[in-house]
Amino acid sequence: MSTASVIADYIRHSRSLGMRFISEEAILCAFCRFVGKMPLRDILPSMITRFVNREGTSDRTMAKKHSALKGFFRYALTRGHLAASPVPSFERTRRGSPFTPYIYSEAELKRILAAVPAATGPRFGVDADTLRTFVLLLYGAGLRRGEARRLKVEDVDLHRSLLHIKETKFFKTRIVPISTSLSKVLKAFVARRRCRYSSEDLLFRQKDGAPLTDAVVTEAFRRVRTLAGIKRGGGARYQPRLHDLRHSFAVHRVTSWYRSGADVNDLLPKLATYLGHKNLSGTQRYLTMTGELLAEAGRRFEVFVQGGRRD
């Protein structure tokens, strides 16, 4: 059997067991494109290593790729398609400092939006209006990419400024309140497409009407980021990502709470719920200590110390 057909069988089998299998499917489809029409039996360990260790891939992503391929080839073995698995063992070769999300400044966010039209020309699969609204939604509501891509028109309650987020990372549904300004953006976006949309249609689609894929929107954002001149200095391997808009939302929200004198300890669990995290530890990983956030936390500590000082 061809590699593509065995991968398709494996995906169907995994879903029949109740697995969502979304990220695994994306990895396996990418691997299928990587090896082309090569028969399954001709795939070599060196090919798998090249796919897993592609330039610019984080250790975490490499581990996910390796795990997905290991599961697939184990399935191929049990079905008699192979006599032995070609998947080599996985070793983390990079021992540098842990990955740090990139927190966009407000000025950088404005540059990103300004660069959208130039990054969405006729040759590309997504139009400027869709990409701009998608970016604003990720930052303004702190959504995951997949959550935004799966939104249907009926999931957007513009009258009450609420989003109904379904099929989340942890199989939960949550209701996300959004700001008046973001609600206006979404209302205008839907109005411009009302003649093409029904309530059950996906909110975001490509130019040809197909669902907006992660690959298309990620590549479009990479062009936007390049045109906006946003990058990590010093030749850093990991450049700012689309997902970092979600991190930026969390950091900017906490910074704003510090500035307004709000009880951050009380509000953090609510932020975790808003973001759809299982617990507070998931949210804490999002709170990269930027200079701005550190300064606000430092000011709060100074006020605390001075308030408790006895003369």
Characterise the protein shown here.
The protein is mostly helical and 311 residues long. It has three domains: 3-78, DNA polymerase, domain 1, CATH 1.10.150; 106-227, Orthogonal Bundle (hpI Integrase, Chain A); 244-308, no CATH class. Helix content is 53%, strand content 3%. A three-stranded antiparallel beta sheet has the order 1-2-3. Helix 1 packs antiparallel against helix 2, helix 2 (22-35) packs across helix 4 and helix 6 (128-141) packs across helix 10 (244-260). The longest helix is centred in the first third of the chain and has 20 residues, at 59-78. The radius of gyration is 22 Å and the shape is globular. The model has no long low-confidence stretch (mean pLDDT 84).
Gist of the model:
The protein is mainly α. It is built from 13 helices and three strands.
CATH class of the largest domain: Mainly Alpha
CATH topology of the largest domain: hpI Integrase, Chain A
Number of strands: 3
Q: Termini separation (Å)?
A: 83 Å
Tally the helices: 13
Second CATH tier, the architecture of the largest domain: Orthogonal Bundle
Unreliable sequence segments: none
* Number of self-contained structural domains: 3
Taken in chain order, the helices and strands follow as HHHHHHHEEEHHHHHH
Percent helix, as a range, is: 40-55%
Question: Roughly how many Å is the radius of gyration?
Answer: 22 Å
Give the class from helix and strand content and strand pairing. Answer: mainly alpha
Q: Looking at this structure, what is the CATH superfamily of the largest domain?
A: Intergrase catalytic core
- Describe the sheet with the most strands: 3 strands, antiparallel
Let me know the average pLDDT: 84
Fraction of residues in β-strands: under 5%
* Biggest sheet strand line-up: 1-2-3
